[in-house]
Amino acid sequence: MSSFYALIIGASSTIAKAAIRKFEENSNCIGVFAVSRSLYVPSESTKTTYLECDNTESGISEVCQILAPLAGRITKVLICNGILHDESIMPERKLEEIRASQLEAVFHANSVVPMLWLSQLLPILQGDRNTQVALFSARIGSISDNKTGGWYSYRASKAALNMLIQTSSVEYARRAKNVKLISFHPGTTDTPLSKPFQRSVPKDKLFSADFVATQLLSIMEHVKMDNKAAYLDWNNQPIEW
């Protein structure tokens, strides 16, 4: 493996932090850029540069201007942004719980923000070196796999993200042939995002963030570079769109 830079967007998430540690330990990784809405510097490694971004179009543009001198050298990108619940949001279990405000908030975090990054990163990722971009989706975003219903806004926002990834891959294939887009399902991971829903998860199906990060980085390293989007789970198994 040749030397590279890594970019982690949504760097405050538990899995993102684990991925940052993995990249810091990788001797081929020259440096890591970690982007989050709130600036924090938990790592003592000199490899990682932390950048603050509010995920608006102008804010993303400013970060991309900082990254521009490294165009063609950033070959590992993780876009980890997303929301399942917060103080005012929980997955809807029935139609009566649908609220426009929740739909808009969840779609913005899970679909709009990742797409804004994917669109503005294009000129930075163009080059001759194989580059992988993993966007955090979920199996629940699979339309063909939907057998249980519920979780309307989260499920639909991930399905929308998958369509945006698929559509972007068509244009990336023309304009950045070196880039592979991956819609990644991490499985149920022991993070604050899954905390309220862990009770029903078998112990062997509740993964550590370190395990998921290791799996993802291995998938990115070995994925087929074919100018097509891939929808993969933590075990490198394809998911039907």
TrEMBL record:
UniProt GO molecular function: oxidoreductase activity
Domain of life: Bacteria
Any one GO cellular component localisation term in the record: cytoplasm
Segments traversing the membrane: none
SUPFAM superfamilies: NAD(P)-binding Rossmann-fold domains
Name listed for the protein in its UniProt record: Short-chain dehydrogenase/reductase
Native source organism of the sequence: Marinomonas primoryensis
